[in-house]
Model the fold of this input.
Amino acid sequence: MDEFASIRHWTADRQSAEWQRSRGVVLGIGDDAALVDGNFSIADIKGPYEWVMAMDTMVEGVHFVDATMEEEDIGYKALAVNISDIAAMGGIPLHALVSVSVPKSFGPERMRRLYDGLYACAERYGVAVVGGDTTSSPQHLVVAVTVTGAVEAGKALRRSGAKPGDAVFLAGQPIGMSAAGLHGLFAQQESRSASGVELPAALVQAHQRPEPGVRAGRMLLRRGTCHSLNDVSDGLASEAWEIAEASGLALILHEYKLPRSGSMASYASRAAVDPLEWMLYGGEDFALLGTIAASDAEAAQAAFHAEGLPFYIIGETEAGDPGVRLIEAETERVVPLAKRGFNHFR
Done:
């Protein structure tokens, strides 16, 4: 099967032309480039809007191996992590360009399954897949996705807007679950039974099929009191540092307020791992970390809970040198948190 036949095999009849037109697509997959109507109306946005663009790459051996991800999971996650970046700006995801570099070990059917997962994510979040690129790879699979979205002009939520006295919050599933799932998947591969330690399905799901907080991002933008926002891709500590440095202040986090999954804590105990390590430094949770006016924090929490969405108030900001500190639960000591998390070049 040649390149063009492969592309048709992976993408044909996935999204109707009529549905794509609802996302402003004039011309999708099949030409030198896609065409999008620059003036199309976006249902949830009234008035002028700005484009939001994000790109992430997943590399076999770095982001996934056969022990941790099925082909469908790779495709789903490759798109989901980009959608999460749009959500972290308060935006609406719209279009995706997908580039794959395919080794011989990933034949047409394995790639078809990858696209099954990618299109499942696209359908869930209303994203039109409009093009991309396909090349061969000498050894490892590489999946690079670019997502475009839109946000009300001048309203995008940034890392740099936190103010002294804000409340610090997390919106999304409890942190540390993805790292626990990854740990368990590797343990199962190494011992075939993870030394008898059962791995909860929720932890596997958290790692393989993250859920971007698009609804949460939109709710936060509409409130008008959210001052900064970031998604937890590289770890809570790392993302908190990014807000602190971008905003020029300190974040104070309370250990006892950090959302802790019961399944994650139970698995950590059985696996003899400190769950706080996963919570602070594990990453790939894709919850939204941000700051909000303290006067609106509890009302925002109530509004989220009314919509069935998790929302946790975990700390506060204060003026001073940029940094992140943790108040320990048992000792109430205030300890600095290292600027540590996943880093490709460390």
